[in-house]
């Protein structure tokens, strides 16, 4: 059973105290900076984890006047769409209400997940050459992409993020089982309307997209040819190229060439109660890991299928049921990757299963030329 730490008391509470009872997840994100985007990402993880446990979820977003920018960046990161928060005086008979907000942020009284801030470097953050040279699978460097889909488009997921509510909007189309994918599978980059050239501190005051607070010097991997930027080429007249994972580069000028899935994975490297600093080495390592895992998953898929080992499934569930401990989930996947006695078919099923929570589209390269 999923348990989260209530930021008000520091004590664990059940995210879904009643079996099959509706849980309302209410996100409080008044700005459009990177910290507010992380708040939305943590809420997305919570919704996915609840759905994997069979809990119906009603996911809502309340915030300030920068919601258009925040929603565009969220779509780019494969975050499922959240409904605008209506008048909740009556409610829908929820068994639990969980508020997700930034540390120190305003939220109604009730169970609360506090999300630590994101620190970004003010100067350019190149994530090109180091990630390209570090990405070797089977002895050859990975430097190309196989398609132009945006990150997260094929991630398996749970059911509609709003079971039992009346909006008619599902949380994630394009996913196996008929779920909606939050618009991430549309093949379009988001954030194109964000002005460039400033650092993203507070979206509410700067009026800028969170993603434009990260700067990159050039395309993530030289030679990548798929994926299109929604804006014209980067300064100097060069064309914007996609990252090696095939996702489309975000339109915010300072982030050209960085796959949103790389950013999503980089934000997963620290628990949500710990600050995360997005520097070149963090983004480069996330990029190398994402490329390696997607290529490995595609390779394992060619072997006979085997079920996820019970002990591995248990370790994955124990990790995300323990206050959404995603860094521990990633550690389990690294262990599966390097376990010599595990059949490749079981590795494939394990990664596909974990991706229902992570939303990294790890199975995206299935069928691509090796």
From TrEMBL:
Residues 123-255 are annotated as: Disordered. Its EC number is 6.3.1.13. Transmembrane segments: none annotated. It is an enzyme of class 6 (ligase). Residues 143-173, 186-215, 225-247 have a biased composition (Low complexity). GO terms for molecular function: cysteine-glucosaminylinositol ligase activity. Residues 174-185 have a biased composition (Gly residues). The keyword Ligase applies. This is L-cysteine:1D-myo-inositol 2-amino-2-deoxy-alpha-D-glucopyranoside ligase.
